[in-house]
Amino acid sequence: MSMLKISGLHVGYGNIEVLHGLNIEVNEGELVTIIGPNGAGKSTLLKTISGQLAPISGTIEFEGKPIQGMPPHKIVQMGISQCPEGRKLFSRSTVSENLLIGAYIRNNKAEAKVDSEKYMARFPVLGARRNQPAGTLSGGEQQMLATSRAMMSHPKIVLLDEPSMGLAPQLVKEIFKMIREIKKDGGTILLVEQNAAMALKIADRAYVLETGQISLEGKARDLLHNDSVRKSYLGEETSETKLP
Q1: Residue 206 pLDDT more than 50?
Q2: CA–CA dist 171, 94 (Å, integer)
Q3: What is the largest CA-CA distance in the chain?
Q4: Does domain 1-79+156-164+181-244 have CATH number 3.40.50.300?
Q5: CA distance 79 to 93
Q6: Beta strand pairing status for 57-62 and 65-66?
Q7: What is the C-alpha separation between 189 and 82, in angstroms, rounded?
Q8: What percent of the chain shows pLDDT beyond 70?
Q9: Model-level pTM?
Q10: Cβ proximity of 123 and 200 under 8 Å
Q11: 3-state SS string over 7-71?
Q12: Count of Cβ atoms closer than 10 Å to residue 226 Cβ
C-alpha cells in the first residue's frame, strides 16, 4: 500500500493551470525523486501536498486518507513535513530555537529538546552555533538546519524542495549524505531536486516532470542511464556529481 498516492492532480494559480493530471506514488521507506527543468511545477506539487495550495481537481491520499485541501497544520499533524525551497528559517531566532519550532506539534517538550541536541550533535557546526541567529549561518549550514528542523516533528514522510540549490559542490555532497542517512534511519522521502545526477544515484524511484506532466517514470538507476534523461538533465558526469 502506498504511503502517499496522488491521482489525477490538477493545480493552478488563478486561471493558469500548472499541473495537468499528475499520478505519483511513494511507498513507505522509499526515497522517490522528482527531477525536471525550472518552471515544470515541482515546487507547486510539494506545496499542494503540504496544503499550501488547493488543487483544482484530483486526489492526494496519505495512508489511505484524502488530504487535499486540508490546512497545513493538520497535514503536519498527520505526519507530513516539508523542508521548503530557500530554507525559510526564522533568521533572527537561534539555531536551537529553529529546531524546537520544528517540534511545535509535539506535546513532550523534554523529548523535543533531546532530539534537538541529537541533531546538533550529528552536525557539530550547528551545535557550535546553537545560540547564533540562523541568518548568520552559511548556505550549507542553513540547509542542514532546515532539514533537521523538518525532521523534528517525527514525520512519516519528509518533502525536500531543492535542498542543494545554491550550494558549493562539497556542501552538496554533505546535504546528500544527510538525505541518505534519513533514509537509512527508516525515513520516507519525496525529493525535488535540480541536481538530477545526485538525486538519481540515491533514489529508489524517480519521476521526470516537464511542463506540468510526468514524461518519464521508473527505477532511478534506469533513468540514470536513460538516453533522454542523460541528454536533457545529466550531461557529462564530473567529480561534482559523485557521491561521497
Answers
A1: yes
A2: 21
A3: 52
A4: yes
A5: 25
A6: antiparallel
A7: 10
A8: 95
A9: 0.89
A10: no
A11: EEEEEEECCEEEEEEEEEEEECCCEEEEECCCCCCHHHHHHHHCCCCCCCEEEEEECCEECCCCC
A12: 18
Over the Cα atoms of the chain, what is R_g? 18
Q: What is the pLDDT of residue 241?
A: 47
| pLDDT digit string, tens, across residues 9-27 | 999 998 899 999 999 999 9
Neighbours of 22 (CB within 10 A): 24
Tell me what the mean pLDDT of segment 97-122 comes to.
90
Q: What is the pLDDT of residue 85?
A: 80
- For residue range 66-75, what is the model confidence (pLDDT) as tens digits? 999 899 999 9
Question: Domains of the chain: which residue ranges?
Answer: 1-79+156-164+181-244, 85-154
Q: Is 121 exposed, middle or buried (0-12, 13-18, 19+ CB in 10 A)?
A: exposed
The one-letter amino acid code at 232 reads: S
